[in-house]
Amino acid sequence: ERIDSFLDRASNLVGEQVTASHELSEAFVIAMDDDLGTPQAVAALFSQITEGNKSVSIGDAEATRHHLSQVKAMLAVFGLDPQAPEWADTATGDARLEPVVDGLVQAMLDQRAEARARKDWTTADAIRDTLT
Question: pTM value?
Fold first, then answer.
């Protein structure tokens, strides 16, 4: 829901179709290069969404366009862009995404539990903050 909300709000602000960036954020690339560090990549995705929501709130169309392009690129890597043609069937699109999103969230929860077991409170707190 947070992803869809950002995509809708950002698209409304910029008033045009924004394509996925050809350059992914450094945090996302590092996470994916680290043995497909999906939880960290999802954290990078939600960090972009947070920054994008801030730019939407202040009406900064240029910054919003940048964040929207980054988010769309990250979602494309995961195959989860709800605005992509393959998800165009809105009657079943959301239901098909649920198991994927559930899996990503569960991976982050598992990573948080591991960090807590290691008493790595900084990492555990960062993951918690990403999920909330």
Answer: 0.60
